[in-house]
């Protein structure tokens, strides 16, 4: 029987607030880590009115996947005793995550050098927009800014050069949170060999550029500046593109391989273009033919046809509710019953990493801020009287 997850015994202290850090610690929590989320006091704008233990707040916390597999303590880090509690929590922690602008943790008394003195083996991960060094390090920003500086936004859009803003999955979740989780696991592996912790500097703009590694190789080889709607993989060719169907929905084509393209042409009755996949002079004619043909059937009719036809790279462009209902998503457990809140079942996104021997799990749903403050304090050695004093001083909240 499988009884362990991959990160059993790993303790994480998470001070992050916005998407990248919570997604990072969600990923690590899904793999078994014990995540202690340090929330801001209820007077702070970011969690005002969210700490009362009422059904609505419980449901908000429970339905947010970024909060699952975590416990919450509320600390006022602007008070010396609040910092002392944080330091105590960090003494036996393995990982410390923060997502503030550079310099903020110094003012809060929880910068790397300070935490390292308390716990020399700590792995300390800072996630920020532009990193801890460089001329942009102190600038504010969000996903759209980081994908702009990092180079991704300039590649996404149509040939008329107007950028198309994607949802914030590129910088926040991939270049930020997922990159941080990967880096932390690398640092954990390194620590098993060296016995030493270390600091990790995650810049979301760096991460975006890192994701463009293939494009960078082509640029340095040829000197050609990639443009939106003009490259093979961003809409510049008919065989890797999207087309509107009869019902106003879209089908995507990814027929890069010659045999995929020939099979598509055969299926659509466009044999005359079978050998014209890379004939740019015929692209306008090919695209017009594809547009006309795809408008003769509904999207799912095309999808049914292509799934039955061997070797045609195509797929429907789904709205999110269609992703939820898709049989493949269901077969892959990408949406699961994660638990219940006040008797109501909670559906959440499943776990993307499928480890066969030490699979991830959803052990607890998200908790309202401060729900675990007293338990965490008792764990690290505070008596009930000491906890009462901390609560009275408004250094800790529950």
Q: What does this 3D model show about the protein?
A:
This protein has about 400 residues and is α/β, with parallel strands linked by helices. The chain has 2 domains: about 10-210 and about 335-395, Crotonobetainyl-coa:carnitine coa-transferase, domain 1 (Rossmann fold, 3-Layer(aba) Sandwich); about 240-325, 2-Layer Sandwich (formyl-coa transferase, domain 3), CATH 3.30.1540.10. About 40% of the residues lie in helices and about 15% in strands. It contains 16 helices and 12 strands. Strands 6-5-4-1-2-3-12 form a 7-stranded mixed sheet, sandwiched between helices. A 3-stranded antiparallel sheet has the order 7-8-9, covered by helices on one side. A hairpin with a 5-residue loop joins strand 7 (about 240-245) and strand 8 (about 250-255). About 35% of the residues are buried. The model has no long low-confidence stretch (mean pLDDT about 95).
Please render the helix and strand layout as text.
Elements: E1 11-14, H1 20-30, E2 34-39, H2 55-63, E3 70-75, H3 80-90, E4 95-98, H4 104-108, H5 112-118, E5 123-128, H6 143-150, H7 169-194, E6 198-203, H8 204-211, H9 213-222, E7 240-244, E8 250-254, H10 258-268, H11 283-294, H12 299-308, E9 314-316, H13 320-325, H14 327-331, E10 335-341, E11 344-349, H15 373-379, H16 384-392, E12 396-397
Parallel strand pairs: 1-2, 1-4, 2-3, 4-5, 5-6
Antiparallel strand pairs: 3-12, 7-8, 8-9, 10-11
């Amino acid at each position: 029987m499988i009884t362990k997850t991959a990160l059993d015994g790993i303790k994480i202290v998470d001070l992050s607030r916005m998407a990248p850090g919570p997604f990072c610690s969600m990923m690590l929590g899904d793999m078994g880590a014990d995540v202690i989320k340090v929330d801001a006091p209820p007077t702070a704008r970011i969690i005002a009115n969210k700490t009362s233990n009422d059904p609505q707040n419980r449901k908000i916390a429970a339905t947010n996947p970024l909060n699952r597999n975590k416990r919450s303590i509320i600390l006022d880090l602007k008070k010396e005793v609040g910092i002392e509690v944080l330091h105590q929590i960090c003494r036996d922690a393995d990982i410390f995550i923060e997502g503030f602008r550079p310099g903020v943790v110094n003012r809060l008394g929880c910068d790397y050098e300070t935490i390292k003195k308390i716990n020399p083996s700590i792995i300390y991960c800072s996630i920020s927009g532009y990193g801890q060094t460089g001329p942009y390090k102190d600038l504010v920003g969000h996903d759209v800014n980081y994908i702009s500086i990092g180079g991704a936004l300039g590649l996404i859009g149509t040939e008329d050069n107007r950028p198309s803003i994607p949802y914030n999955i590129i910088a926040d979740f991939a270049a930020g949170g997922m990159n941080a989780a990967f880096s932390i696991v690398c640092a954990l592996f390194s620590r098993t060999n060296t016995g030493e912790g270390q600091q990790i500097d995650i810049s979301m703009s760096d991460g975006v550029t890192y994701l463009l590694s293939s494009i960078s190789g082509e640029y340095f080889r040829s000197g050609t500046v990639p443009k939106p709607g003009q490259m093979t993989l961003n809409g510049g060719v008919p065989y890797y593109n999207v087309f509107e169907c009869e019902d106003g929905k879209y089908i995507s084509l990814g027929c890069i391989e010659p045999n995929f393209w020939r099979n598509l042409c055969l299926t659509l009755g466009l044999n005359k273009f079978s050998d014209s996949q890379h004939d740019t002079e015929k692209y306008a004619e090919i695209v017009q033919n594809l547009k006309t043909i795809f408008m003769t059937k509904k999207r799912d009719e095309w999808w049914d046809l292509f799934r039955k036809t061997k070797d045609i790279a195509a797929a429907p462009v789904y709205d999110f509710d269609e992703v939820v209902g898709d049989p493949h998503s269901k077969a892959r457990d990408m949406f699961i019953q994660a638990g219940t809140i006040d008797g109501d079942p909670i559906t959440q996104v499943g776990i993307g990493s499928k480890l066969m021997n030490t699979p991830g799990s959803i052990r607890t749903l998200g908790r309202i801020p401060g729900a675990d403050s007293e338990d965490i304090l008792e764990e690290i050695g505070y008596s009930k009287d000491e906890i009462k004093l901390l609560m009275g001083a408004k250094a800790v909240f529950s």
